């Protein structure tokens, strides 16, 4: 399965990708996680990306395209992948199509997870991530176990979340007509329990 998960910030892409990766037996490729890892490791790429990420802006296309190009070359992505958070602009989508065309392995599906803006702000600001495992929690909807060492993302402050949502509206929402015109787009309602959303995704993908 070669799949793109689309959706606004905090719509549940990471939560769902981590479940689907087991069910579909393909790796989850999250550009957000890759960029955060680079930032933490203090690499040149991480330093380049940091200012954009902390300000709630998109990292320049050429940076993320290079990152994904390299990642798709790895062995575990040969039989498929779940892209989470990439592409986010039409130029990124076009670059991805070109990369995959060279390998004769086009995308098979693009699924958008739809959630209203108010709920997205609440989901993002109360998100916490396990420092060791990266497991995603929510202080109300999916509380972390006692004693877990938690990270509150720098870009999950309310003002920055709103900027990220604006970036989504101005840059990423254009991918919906783009993929719809290619007959690849499916949409699922992202409001409900996480396992209900997983079921909806599997039905949309025809693998249930
Ligand atoms: P990235 O990490 O990709 O952030 P994002 O797209 O904003 O998505 P999130 O990680 O915020 O949310 P999610 O949809 O994965 O939701 P989650 O499952 O965690 O990108 C971060 C930054 O990196 C960008 O701003 C940009 O600077 C840069 N970047 C990354 N990719 C880029 C690219 N391609 N181009 C340019 N720049 C790029 O869930 C959120 C919360 O909700 C959690 O607390 C979770 O527990 C909870 N939750 C999930 N599902 C449910 C549910 N069904 N009910 C209740 N709560 C739920």
Helix-strand blueprint:
Layout: E1 2-6, H1 13-24, E2 28-30, H2 31-41, H3 44-54, H4 61-72, E3 81-84, H5 90-102, E4 109-114, H6 117-125, E5 127-130, E6 136-138, E7 150-151, H7 158-172, H8 175-181, E8 185-189, H9 194-205
Parallel strand pairs: 1-3, 1-4, 2-3, 4-8
Antiparallel strand pairs: 5-6, 5-7
Helix pairs in contact: 1-9, 2-3, 4-5, 6-7
BIS(adenosine)-5'-pentaphosphate is lined by residues 7, 9-15, 31-32, 35, 52-53, 56-59, 64, 85-88, 92, 123-124, 127, 136-138, 141-142, 155, 164, 192, 194, 197.
Instruction: Kindly report the spatial arrangement of strands forming the biggest sheet.
Output: 2-3-1-4-8
Shape: globular
Text of the CATH class of the domain at 2-27 and 74-115 and 169-204: Alpha Beta
Which second-level CATH architecture of the domain at 2-27 and 74-115 and 169-204 applies? 3-Layer(aba) Sandwich
Q: What structural class do you assign from the helix and strand content?
A: alpha/beta
CATH superfamily of the domain at 2-27 and 74-115 and 169-204: P-loop containing nucleotide triphosphate hydrolases
Question: How is this structure best described in words?
Answer:
The structure is a single chain. This protein is α/β, with parallel strands linked by helices and 208 residues long. It has a domain at 2-27 and 74-115 and 169-204: P-loop containing nucleotide triphosphate hydrolases (Rossmann fold), CATH 3.40.50.300. 49% of the residues lie in helices and 15% in strands. It is built from nine helices and eight strands. A five-stranded parallel β-sheet has the order 2-3-1-4-8, with helices on both faces. It has a three-stranded antiparallel β-sheet with strand order 6-5-7. Helix 1 packs across helix 9 (194-205), helix 4 packs parallel to helix 5 (90-102) and helix 6 packs across helix 7. The protein is globular. It starts with a strand and ends with a helix. The mean pLDDT is 96. BIS(adenosine)-5'-pentaphosphate (AP5) binds next to helix 1, helix 2, helix 3, helix 6 and strand 6.
């Amino acid at each position: 399965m070669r799949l793109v998960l689309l959706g606004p910030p905090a719509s549940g892409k990471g939560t769902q990708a981590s479940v689907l990766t087991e069910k579909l037996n393909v790796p989850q490729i999250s550009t957000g996680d890759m960029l955060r890892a680079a930032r933490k490791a203090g690499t040149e790429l991480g330093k380049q990306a940091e200012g954009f990420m902390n300000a709630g802006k998109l990292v320049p296309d050429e940076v993320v395209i290079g990152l994904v190009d390299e990642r798709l070359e790895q062995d575990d992505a040969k039989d498929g992948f779940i892209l989470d958070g990439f592409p986010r602009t039409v130029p990124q989508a076009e670059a991805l199509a070109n990369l995959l065309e060279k390998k004769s392995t086009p995308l098979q599906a693009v699924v958008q997870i739809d959630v209203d803006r108010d709920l997205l702000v609440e989901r993002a600001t109360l998100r916490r991530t396990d420092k060791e495992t990266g497991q995603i929690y929510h202080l109300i909807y999916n509380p972390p176990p006692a004693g877990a060492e938690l990270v509150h993302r720098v870009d999950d402050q309310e003002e920055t979340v709103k900027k990220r949502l604006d970036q989504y509206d101005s840059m990423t929402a254009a991918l919906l007509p783009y993929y719809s015109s290619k007959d690849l787009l499916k949409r699922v309602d992202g409001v409900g329990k996480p396992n209900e959303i997983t079921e909806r995704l599997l039905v949309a993908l025809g693998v249930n």
